[in-house]
């Protein structure tokens, strides 16, 4: 298993890989090391035949696996024995998907630094090179680069505690991972302008009403909801899901007529797959399709 400085990875037998951005003390800010690890991992998972869909979330509350639960209850028990049930000041919970690019890392840089390292171009690989579906489980702040990262995913499911925004203007800069473009396509010019120019944050509910996210769920359920969606997708034929994602994404890059033509050709191409034969014959025979991913 690969080891990471800034990420946690869990691969489930269902074919779902769960990645957590794991810098909770910095609200999962996207330092370059984190972005590099993330892009490399996504590209590896894309080639890994045991992975069929991917969930991306921020480390912190809402993430449950057996090991974590065990240690959590152990810690609660020990604390109870030591201090009794006396109420303590509430611990600041980890509450971010990602609070954006790492401001402290960027602060000393000048134009030539960011131009030469072509800062954030690496993140384009997520949008353009990862072919398997990625579901963002936004479990808190998704600001600046965090909002942009969520928007490079294919589906966004938000916790009712999530907040979205492009506050770069408050730092004397502008979005740099596609925010001005993807946000505008997602919610329209006037709303995108308002968010980018004021730096205001919006609630998950507002993001849902504006069509930025597919739905809002109670905070503690956000990861499970995303996993459920990922598991549903994992039960489909992988190549057909990839073709489908490619077709939807084309709508951002082409005129309607070109996009429809692109879709038609991809639709035709599915008839060269074993899975189209399997899917249609299973329907006729009232059986469940057994995909061969071929
Ligand atoms: N970069 C680096 N560190 C960050 C960070 C970021 N984007 N966001 C939060 N942190 C750090 C804080 O500095 C703080 O660290 P210390 O404990 O060492 O001081 C820690 O995370 C916790 O943050 P806060 O104490 O600020 O937490 P809060 O609950 O009071 O506020 C917040 C939360 C409103 C999200 C606030 O942290 C904040 O405004 N963060 C910055 C958000 C932002 O401006 N994002 C855009 C970044 S620029 C960008 O993303 C460019 C681009 O398009 C690529």
UniProtKB/TrEMBL annotation:
Pfam families, sorted: ECH_1
Gene Ontology molecular functions: hydro-lyase activity; isomerase activity
PROSITE patterns, per the entry: ENOYL_COA_HYDRATASE (PS00166)
Glycoprotein listed as a keyword: no
UniProt keywords, alphabetically: Isomerase, Lyase
Annotated GO biological process: fatty acid beta-oxidation
GO cellular component terms given for this protein: mitochondrion
PANTHER family reported in the protein's UniProt record: ENOYL-COA HYDRATASE, MITOCHONDRIAL (PTHR11941:SF54), ENOYL-COA HYDRATASE-RELATED (PTHR11941)
Sequence similarity: Belongs to the enoyl-CoA hydratase/isomerase family.
Protein name: Enoyl-CoA hydratase/isomerase
Organism in which the protein naturally occurs: Reticulomyxa filosa
